[in-house]
DNA sequence: AGCAGATGTTCGAGAACGCCGAACATGTTG
DNA sequence: CAACATGTTCGGCGTTCTCGAACATCTGCT
């Protein structure tokens, strides 16, 4: 899985984030849906931490396979890669799964309001499926 | 001039604006620079109307040729077309020139805050030239 | 009217990118 | 170890982007 040869997952630093790359990453319905689902998982993790329950997406992380996307697996892989290299999500490997988390803090710091705009749009995409 | 065969310039209605198309339109440095210049022309026209002077970009409109862009003319034509069909700008023909204006009202109505985010980024692009 | 210049668009070719199925790599489980 | 599950990589195919060259339309000048 996850190409454990020697290459590590490259994530741009907060200061490295390029507006055009982030917009390009968010300008696709599938990727927008991914972002919306991650935002949902994020808030779920928050409320669960407050209520001390134990299920759900721990830490707001979701594996790639948990998204039921209407594209092939290889295309999904490409979409996650675009989001990661643009700095929209952060990925880490755990066992056979690759966990994804939204980089909300970094995005809010550099482009305040953008995620608040994109997430509802992503939800609308999902609603149309 | 502007292809006066029979096809009129098609502009999407405010309700027709698609988030993904707008983001894709804004995810290019050249187009971002165009938007920033139009925003500048817009505010110039505003202050001039207040002071009753007469020069500058009337009504916040700028002809395609007034942008000194580092791409070929045909590519510029394509960029303006993308912006228009995404609903970011409105174009109208006057004589031999095609005048462009930012659709700020429509964009602010559908995606509030997006232009406020994009315009400074476009200015940064111009500053790097 | 006629012709030259200015402003944009369209066309054709070559490069770059996106999506897919198939094959591969890695980790987990019985 | 074998079967399975999760993702990535590869090669092909179609779409999209960019450019120069040619074309179309309007304005001015003579």
UniProtKB/TrEMBL annotation, chains A, B:
Q: Which residues form the HTH arsR-type domain?
A: 21-116
> What is the protein named?
DNA-binding transcriptional regulator, ArsR family
Query: What range does the record give for the signal peptide?
Result: none
InterPro entries named among the record's database cross-references? HTH_ArsR_DNA-bd_dom, HTH_MetalResp_TranReg, WH-like_DNA-bd_sf, WH_DNA-bd_sf
- Which superkingdom? Bacteria
Q: Which keywords belong to this entry?
A: DNA-binding, Transcription, Transcription regulation
Please verify whether the record's keywords include Mitochondrion: no
């Amino acid at each position: 899985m996850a190409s454990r040869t020697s290459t590590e997952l490259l994530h741009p630093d907060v200061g490295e984030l390029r507006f055009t790359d982030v917009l390009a990453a968010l300008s696709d319905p599938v990727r927008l849906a991914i972002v919306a689902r991650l935002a949902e998982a994020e808030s779920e993790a928050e409320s669960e931490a407050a209520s001390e329950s134990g299920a759900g997406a721990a830490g707001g992380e979701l594996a790639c396979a948990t998204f039921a996307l209407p594209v092939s697996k290889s295309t999904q892989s490409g979409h996650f890669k675009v989001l990661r290299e643009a700095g929209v999500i952060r990925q880490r490997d755990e066992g056979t799964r690759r966990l994804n988390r939204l980089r909300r803090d970094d995005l809010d710091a550099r482009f305040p309001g953008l995620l608040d705009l994109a997430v509802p749009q992503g939800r609308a995409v999902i609603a149309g499926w």
